[in-house]
Design goal:
The complex is a heterotrimer of chains A (about 270), B (about 650) and C (about 300). Chain B is an alpha/beta fold and about 650 residues long. Chain B contains 21 helices and 28 strands. In chain B, strand 13, helix 13 and strand 14 form a beta-alpha-beta unit. The chains are: A alpha/beta (about 270), B alpha/beta (about 650), C mainly alpha (about 300).
């Protein structure tokens, strides 16, 4: 992993820029349960930002707030310095927020290629008639989609399964396909919900490599959540640590590692 | 090319001819991003000219060595052509070479330039670069992940192409006797040696092959075996230039079968390992689909088994088999257009050969060596004798020396070993016969029967000639067995280390509802021992049928807890057994096989070096099993 | 077999196939909704009834055919939108069983509304297409097939081809397949769940209208139309619950086999075999090919 991170940080084709996503004083409640309390942090353009924390710390809630699945009771979200309210998943997708899910959400009855192509359909403009009659715009879009999809397939090294139905694939590959589908939309920000959950060491390393490749190659800003500190610390530029819905740390991996609150939370010191 | 001026022709001049004459014909194809992209002869020639110009600009000239590290890709072939254009010597290496091996070879050939396909290969080259002062430039093809590399001696293929397009230069004035290639041997025992080939020699070989195999411009071949293997390079690059056939390059090794289906090659190089892999995949698929196809397939396999044992091929398949099994199967395998497939690299088990032939695939065993070229002998059409490698092809003289070794004489052999005059001299006798290192016999009809390598043949204590390969190839016919290593030199009988095929044994275990946690666990199960013991008994029965082989029956065997692999140094590049290394690694196990112990402690070294599971489920002791033998053979060791 | 017998056989077969087309149409409505929401829409029969009754009602109000048709289509789109808004949206993330119960409720609502608005008596629907054998066809081939049957076949064919293109090629079709597979994934790539549902229910409504018109023209517009929805069940079992081409073929099989069975086997059982033969066939399929002709095999990874 060290080799990757050294080269990763040496020269970036897309240097880290200003904030692209800012969260201010976010609080989220489900009935009486406080899922998130007064959380603020930002995400810089082109960085890899990790949100970590023990199970039940509110990481997924945080991601779902960004992704528009949950609407927080308090707080503001700015995306590209535009104030967002009433975010929905559809709106998030249109704005350029792509995501993957902890429990893999793929179109299981479609092939890998179809899944990835599906990720691009939002950008197509050809109407029903144009498609039905195979008019130039429809054909052009189809070709563009296929080219982009093939580029992603090559990047993620899944050529050998492109025509395989997703439900037949092992877990690790499904995760990779899901990443591919999210990438197909060419998102500005990619939200990855526990991309390495349930993987063996080798698969985890592969996934890390792909995440870095994506960040490096396309400049995609990446927000990922993970519950174990291991590999994530190696590939992240900055890390937010949540515990019981509150932010207990924020900074570079080294800062976070030496933060006493974080150490306590991970070692399970009673509050 | 029937070449009227071969004396002066080089591979580059032939390529230039093709570019002038074969306008619009495809020469190189590559599947990339789901699409086959192609280069015609002119495209290939022009791109190579540009690269050659860039090479010249970087100070390369006639006689310099350029090393190649990558898979079969049009750009690899183009860069080799460029090397030949400037009169340089191409040194294709195995893409999976270790850094240490790579450094050694780069130093030996004093390479001035290295073509490395991608970041992985570049990393390897950079690691050894400080020790290889001759290397001035490292050229990479795939730019992925290369952005962060700042080294001044790194250049991308695209950069070279751009530089070269702007200042074209002519071809170097070299003759056919100039060296064209250095091929490394993939020897199973000692260190690899570097065989030097001239343009004329390579061209002579392609002409011989074109005649023997009937190759022409309409032929297609799929290049997928390591380019560092002389055989693959000869059957792709050289044969394409020599006969005008087109080279199809797969997208990746994982997509091979699908790419093959689309390419539908007419001529193909295979190895016994590739065939084993294909057959076990086919078997699995047939078993899963069931029905009439399966019963036809089973019948075909058992016929092949029987005829293989008797070394006698029967007539072709019937209508029914052809319609219901063979045709669909050939279509799925991408072998529907295949006129001939050539198995090289190792001896193929007769039953395996016949299985493929019964499927309607014209598979032939070839015989050759890195020093003599891959085509000394070949099984002829229509008269395939499965236990021989056929007769010497036209233009080749073959004989058996007094010591039983095969020797060959013809044009087109290597010039010698690079920088090793002693070895070069030792390889040829005064009359120009080149020793092959193989022990064999030539029958009255001229067909050649290989026995084994000179250095692995031995005798049992009672004097019975023991060629391990012969016994092993019988054991590995089973889909459950991946490799077998037999020992017996100086012993009373033969014992075997058996490496099970995790996939098919795993499937079998699933069907028997046997739980297992990985290869080591599987290989330690009594049920699996039972399964393999049954098979070994079968093998013994076949051996016993031939009185000269009866003594070679396998008495005891052990299932290895860990796969024999190239990485661990147990197999050579082409998957041949590295006997010396295996014998050393498993010395205590081999001792126990012969001293009658019921089991043997696993050495810690074996235990820790790569078992797939780190749990305590597998026993720390390896059990040894006696095999059922037929007849009254001495069985002291197993008593 | 002499020529007469052959002709008679062909006539029964063609008649059966054309009747089968109508079964296919009804089943098509079920499949659309099943694909999008994995729920067996109990209200499909009611939708057929509601749609065609409304159409006849509009015509009785004095609208001519070409006005009444778009008005009814618009009404069915409204029904689709209302279903999404008031039935499906509140039930997002509920189990499939809940949704199933909701469609039963929807069926009662639609039946009630239709009868409240248009009354309960049986209407005749005249599409201007006679349900009598075409004489020129009979003269030409000796087979008697009615113009209405032919029309039904053509209409169904056009509808099916249109739907096939819609669902396999267009953004909406991809959206439908995506939603059917995973709501979360579909939303994450910007597919609006509610638009897809609205579209599907509206489309199912329009298919119901077409089916209702063709059936109504033959047997009158009446409450019993709801019953033909039952015939769609064996069609779906045979064709596969998620396959558009599957139900088309299955509809033809059911139509042809029930007529042939009635004519050739029926006499041995004293007739009436037409009513239950399709169900027997469905049972056979359930035993030997539970996924149907074109349905997806359930692949389970262990």
């Amino acid at each position: 992993m060290n080799v990757i991170s050294e080269t990763h940080f040496s020269e970036r084709a897309f240097p880290i820029a200003g904030p692209v996503l800012e969260l201010e004083n976010i609080s989220l409640r489900f009935g009486g349960v406080h899922a998130l309390t007064d959380i603020s942090f930002n995400v810089l353009e082109h960085e890899v930002r990790a949100i970590i924390g023990p199970n039940g710390a509110g990481k997924s809630s945080m991601l779902n707030v960004i992704g528009g699945l949950y609407t927080p009771q308090e707080g503001r979200i700015r995306f590209d310095s535009e104030l967002l309210s009433g975010m929905t998943p559809g709106r998030a997708a249109k704005l350029g927020i792509g995501r993957t899910f902890q429990n893999i959400a793929l179109f299981k009855r479609m092939t890998v290629l179809e899944n990835i192509m599906a990720g691009r359909k939002l950008f197509n403009h050809a109407t029903f008639l144009e498609v039905a009659l195979q008019l130039p715009r429809a054909r052009r879009e189809e070709i563009e989609d296929r080219e982009k999809a093939e580029e992603i397939i090559e990047t993620l090294e899944i050529q050998h399964i492109r025509k395989t139905q997703v439900s037949r694939l092992p877990y690790g590959l499904q995760k990779r396909v899901e990443l591919g589908r999210a990438l197909a939309a060419e998102p500005k920000i990619l939200l990855l919900d526990e991309p390495m959950a349930g993987m063996n060491v080798e698969e985890k390393q592969d996934m890390c490599r792909f995440i870095i490749d994506v960040n490096d190659h396309y400049g995609t800003t990446i927000v990922l959540i993970e519950h174990d500190m291991g590999v994530v610390m190696d590939i992240s530029d900055r890390v937010v640590v949540l515990d019981y819905g509150k932010k207990i740390g924020d900074g570079t991996p080294d800062d976070v590692r030496s933060n006493q609150n974080v150490i306590d939370a991970y070692l399970g010191v009673a509050h | 090319m029937t070449g009227t001026h071969v004396g002066g022709a080089t591979l580059w001049s032939l390529l230039a001819n093709n570019a002038a004459q074969r306008t619009g014909e495809q020469a190189l194809l590559l599947k990339r991003r789901g699409i086959w992209r192609s280069w015609d002869w002119k495209g290939w020639h022009d791109e190579a000219s540009a690269i050659a110009a860039a090479m010249t600009a970087r100070g390369l000239s006639a006689g310099t060595h350029v090393a190649f590290l990558g898979e079969n890709k049009p750009r690899l072939f183009t860069a080799i052509a460029a090397t030949h254009c400037i009169g340089g010597v191409a040194v294709p290496l195995y893409p999976d070479a270790s850094a240490a091996e790579l450094g050694e070879q780069l130093r030996q050939v004093e390479a001035s330039m290295v073509f490395a396909e991608n970041q992985e290969q570049v990393d390897k080259v950079l690691e050894v670069l400080p020790d290889c002062p001759s290397v001035k430039t490292v050229v990479f093809d795939d730019e992925r992940g290369m952005r962060h590399y700042q080294q001044s001696d790194l250049a991308s293929y695209d950069t070279l192409l751009e530089q070269g397009r702007n200042n074209a230069s002519g071809a170097a004035p070299i003759g056919g006797d100039a060296p064209a290639f250095v091929f490394y041997t993939s020897r199973t025992g000692e260190v690899a040696k570097a065989a030097v080939y001239s343009h004329a020699a390579v061209i002579a070989q392609t002409q011989r092959a074109a005649t023997a195999q009937g190759l022409g411009p309409s032929d297609r071949t799929l290049a997928y075996l390591p380019p560092g293997w002389s055989c693959q390079m000869m059957m792709s690059y050289a044969q394409a230039i020599g006969s005008g056939l087109s080279i199809w390059c797969p997208e990746s090794s994982d997509t091979l079968l699908e790419d093959m289906r689309e390419a539908a090659p007419t001529t193909l190089l295979v190895t016994p390992r590739v065939l084993d892999a294909i057959m076990s995949q086919v078997t699995t698929r047939m078993e899963e689909s069931g029905g009439i196809g399966l019963s036809l397939f089973r019948r075909l396999r058992s016929e092949a088994e029987r005829e293989g044992a008797a070394a006698k091929a029967s007539s072709g398949p019937g209508m029914m088999t052809e319609m219901m099994l063979n045709r669909p199967l050939r279509d799925t395998l991408g072998m529907s257009q295949l006129r001939m497939a050539f198995c090289a690299g190792d001896m193929l088990d007769p039953a395996m050969l016949l299985s493929f032939r019964k499927l309607g695939i014209n598979l032939k065993q070839l015989y050759g060596t890195t020093e003599t070229g891959y085509l000394l002998a070949m099984q002829a059409d229509g008269e395939v004798q499965p236990d021989t490698v056929g007769r010497a092809v036209a233009g080749i003289e073959l004989k058996v020396t007094d010591s039983g070794e095969l020797a060959a004489r013809a044009d087109g052999f290597m010039e010698g070993y690079l920088g090793d005059e002693a070895a070069t001299a030792a390889a040829r006798d005064a009359d120009g016969w080149l020793l092959t290192g193989d022990v064999g016999e030539i029958g009255s009809d001229g067909s050649v029967r290989l026995i084994d390598r000179t250095d692995s043949i031995g005798r049992l204590s009672d004097g019975t000639l023991f060629a391990p390969r012969g016994v092993e190839s019988r054991i590995t016919t089973s889909p459950y067995v991946r490799e077998a290593v037999t020992f017996g030199d100086g012993q009373d009988g033969v014992c075997a280390l058996i490496d099970i095929d995790t996939l098919s044994v795993g499937r079998w275990a699933d069907s028997q509802e046997i739980a297992y946690s990985g290869h080591a666990d599987l290989a330690s199960q009594n049920a699996v021992y039972g399964l393999i013991a049954e098979w070994v008994a079968e093998v013994n029965k076949n051996l016993a049928a031939d009185p000269t082989h009866s003594n070679l029956q396998v008495r005891r065997f052990v299932l290895l807890p860990q796969e024999l692999s190239v990485e661990d140094g147990m197999l050579s590049r082409l998957g041949k057994l590295r006997r010396a290394a295996i014998a050393e690694h498993y010395a205590p196990v081999v001792r126990a096989l012969f001293n009658g112990a019921p089991d043997v402690a696993l050495e810690r070294a074996i235990d820790e070096s790569g078992l797939h599971t780190h749990d305590d489920a597998h026993p720390a002791r390896l059990q040894i099993k006696n095999a059922a033998v037929v007849g009254d053979i001495k069985n002291r060791s197993a008593a | 077999m002499d020529l007469y017998e052959v002709l008679f056989f062909l006539e029964v077969l063609v008649g059966g196939l054309l009747a089968g087309v109508m079964y296919s149409l009804v089943a098509l409505g079920f499949v659309l909704i099943y694909k999008a929401s994995s729920v067996f829409n109990f209200a499909q029969g009611a939708m057929v009834f509601f749609a065609v009754l409304s159409f006849v009602g509009f015509m009785e109000l004095g609208l001519n055919f070409w006005v009444a048709l778009p008005v009814t289509v618009a009404l069915m789109i409204l029904v689709g939108m209302a279903t999404e808004r008031f039935v499906l949206r509140p039930l997002v993330n509920q189990s499939d069983d809940t949704l199933l119960m909701a469609t039963i409720g929807l069926a009662f609502v639609l039946e009630g509304l239709a009868q409240m608005a248009w009354g309960v008596e049986v209407r005749r629907l005249d599409l201007g297409i006679p349900d009598v054998p075409l004489t020129w066809l009979a003269d030409l081939t000796g087979i008697f097939v009615s113009a209405l049957d032919i029309t039904a076949g053509v209409v169904a064919g056009v509808l099916v081809v249109g739907l096939a293109i819609l669902f396999s090629k267009t953004k909406a079709g991809l959206g439908l397949r995506a939603v059917a597979d995973s709501h979360a994934a579909a939303q994450s790539i910007g597919i609006p769940l509610k638009h897809i549902w609205m579209m599907v229910w509206a489309t199912a409504g329009i298919v119901a209208l077409v089916a209702g018109m063709l059936w109504g023209a033959r047997s009158g517009v009446q409450f019993a139309l709801i019953g033909i929805a039952l015939k769609a069940l064996p069609v779906m079992i045979i064709g596969g619950f998620t396959s558009v081409p599957g139900v088309i073929v299955a509809g033809l099989i059911v139509g042809a086999s029930e007529k042939l069975a009635e004519v050739y086997i029926g006499p041995y059982f004293g007739g009436g075999i037409e009513g239950w033969a399709p169900y027997m066939l469905a049972v056979v399929f359930l035993m030997f090919r539970p996924e149907g002709l074109f349905g997806e095999r359930h692949i389970r990874r262990v």
